[in-house]
C-alpha cells in the first residue's frame, strides 16, 4: 500500500515528522518499506497564463508565446509543445529556475528569437516517469504568479507500507488513518459522505443467485456522464502518489474511492448491458475477454457478474472488455459489492491475474462500506463528469453477511502474555479506540469486533492488539524462567552435516534443486512413479512433485554440460514424494551424480573417466562413517533410469534403501545428453544410522597371514565369496582384503581368479600353524561345496 503523507494528514495529523510517523506505523506492526519525495526538487516555477500564441517566424514546429507570470510584464517564450494554447494556465519556469537534474533556465535564442523561461511538462518537473508529449495543463482556477510547488503541494512524501495478509483493513487511507488515530489518541475526520438524491427513477434490475458468495450487491444507474471530462489535477496527483496511473474520469474516481475507503468499485457501460445484472457461478464452456485483452475460459467454480447474454466480469477480480467504459459511454451502471473472501481467494491467481480489487477482497472488505463507497463515488462522478444519478438498487442477504464476533479477553491472560499488568482503564481505552464495543467485569472484558477487522477471532488476537497499541518497546524484557533438561545425544547417529562434509571432501558440490520437476523428465527416468501433480505450478516444467532426486540432478547435469563443464560432481539432500495426496510418503534422501574425468585436469592426472566403482567408493566412504559397513549390501538389479549391466540395489540390514548405477543409454539419448553419468540415491535414515565405537585392547602377539587365490565363475559376486570366508574363518580373523581379480592367460574361459589376503591375530597368545591350516581347509571346502570355487595352484 502506497499513500501520500498529505492525504493521510487530511484525515489525522499527529505532531510527528514523516520519519517519526513511519517509525510509529512500523512499531505498530505495519512495516514501512520506503519513504520517497512526491516529486524531484526544483525551484523558480510559478503558475503562468499563456496570454497569446503565434507561429515562430523561423520554425514550423515552434510557437512564440507570451506568458503572464504575475510579475506584471509578460515573458516571451519559445515553446515546442503541440498542446500549448492561449488562455491556458501552465507551470512556468522563470529565468534562474532550477529544474530536476540541476537544469538551470537561462535566457536563450531559439532560431533567432529570444526566449525568457520555459513552459514545463509533467516529466520535466519530475511528476511523471515517462516523457510527456505536451505541457502540463493546470485548472483555470490556478492563481497566476503563485509558486507552483507550493500551490500543488509537492513538498510531500509517498510512504509505502508492507502489510501482512491479515491486515486488509489498512489497504486504504481510511484504514491507515484509523491506526494512526488510535496510536496518537486523535480523532479521525474524513470527508463527509452524504446520500446523493436520485435525479431520475430509472434503475437497472439486479439478481444475486449465490448469496453465500455475494451477500450484498449495490448498483446505481448514472445517466449522461461525460467520460471525456478531465480528471481534476488534485485527484490525478493523489493517484500518482499512490502508484496509480490516471486513465479517464470514471476509472479514476473508482480507483480514488478504493484507495480512500478500501472498497473496490466497477463501472459498466449501460449500453452494453442486457436485461438484468446477475451474480452467479460461471457455466461450463463460458468465456470472457477481460479488460487487459486476455481471453479466459471460465471454470464452474468462478463467481461472475453477468447479464442475460453472458458473463461481464470475474467478481472481485476484473471486468470484461465488452462491458467496459469507453469514450462513447454516456450512461454507466456503478457496482459496489461485498464478496466473501473465500469466494475470491485464489481466483485471480488461477487465471494468471493479480488486481488491486482481488488483493483487497481476498483479505476481506468491510461489508458495511458498500453503500458509503457508492455515495462517495456518485458525488465525485457528478461533480467531475456531470450526469444524473438514479436510485440505489440493493440485494442483501443478512443471513450470509459475516456474523458479529464477540471475543473474551481475560485480564490474567493479558498479564501473563505481556509480562506486565496494564491498568484496566488503559486496556478498555485501547479496545474502544480500536472500534470495539468493550464491557468489563471482574475477570476482564467482553468485546464486539468491528466489521472491518476480519483478523480478530480469538483471545490471543486481542492480546496482540493491546500489546502493539500500548507499544512493544514499552513491554518488559525478561529472560524466561525454565528448567530445561538436556536431551540425550544420539551418539550412534551420523549427523547429516557430517555426510555433507564428507561429500565435499570427496570433491562434490552440493546442489539445491526444486522439489517440483517436469512430468516428461520424471516419466523418462521413473515411468512407473506416482507423485502429486500441482494444481497451480510455477511453470509447466515444474508441475509434479519429484519421486526421486535423479530428475533434479540430471537437469543440473544438463545445465552444466551446456555450459562447457566436462567434470561434474554434485550431491543433494532432500525429500522425495511418492503416492497420492491422501497417502503421500515423504522420504529424506541423499543423492549424488558424477560425470567426466576421474581426476581434475593437470599434468599429473590421468584421463580415465569416472566409473561405477569410483561412485561406489564415494558411497562406501559415507557408509563407513556409521561404523557398520558389514550391514550393507549391493545386489545387481534393474532400474528404468540405470544401465542394465551397471546398476545395483542398495540394501541395509536386508532392506532396500536406494540405487546406484550408470545412467541408461536410452534415457541419455532421449534427454539429449552427450556424456554418460553415474548416480546414486540412498535413504538418509540408513546413512545416519550407526553404532557407537568401542575400545578393544591391541594384541601383543604376532599376526598370521595366508593368501588364497580361488578360481570361481565370472558371474559370481565377490561378496558371496567374502561372506563364505568370514563364516568359516573363525572369531580371530582380524582382516580380509581383496587384492587381485584376474582373467586371462592361465585362467579357464568363463572363470576368474580372486585373490584374498587373510590375517588372524589372537588377543592373548600366538596362533600355531595347525590352527590356521584347519581354518584354511574349512574355507576351501565350504567354497568348493557351495560356490564351485577351486583353489588356484
Ordered list of secondary-structure elements with their pairings:
Elements: E1 2-4, H1 5-11, H2 18-27, E2 31-37, E3 43-55, E4 63-68, E5 75-79, E6 89-99, E7 103-104, E8 108-110, E9 113-115, E10 118-119, H3 148-152, E11 157-162, H4 173-184, E12 206-208, E13 216-223, H5 233-241, H6 249-261, E14 265-269, E15 277-281, E16 287-289, E17 295-297, E18 303-306, E19 311-314, E20 318-319, E21 332-338, H7 341-344, H8 347-350, H9 356-363, H10 370-385, E22 388-389, E23 393-396, E24 406-410, H11 411-418, H12 424-433, E25 437-440, E26 444-448, H13 459-470, H14 496-505, E27 509-510, E28 516-517, H15 519-525, E29 544-545, H16 550-561, E30 568-578, E31 585-595, H17 612-625, E32 632-636, E33 642-652, E34 655-663, H18 665-671, E35 678-683, H19 684-688, E36 704-713, H20 718-728, E37 733-742, E38 751-760, H21 769-787, E39 790-791
Parallel strand pairs: 12-15, 27-30
Antiparallel strand pairs: 1-11, 2-11, 3-4, 3-6, 4-5, 6-7, 6-10, 8-9, 13-21, 13-22, 13-23, 14-21, 15-18, 16-17, 18-19, 19-20, 24-26, 25-26, 28-29, 30-31, 31-35, 32-33, 33-34, 34-35, 36-38, 36-39, 37-38
Helix pairs in contact: 1-4, 5-6, 6-10, 20-21
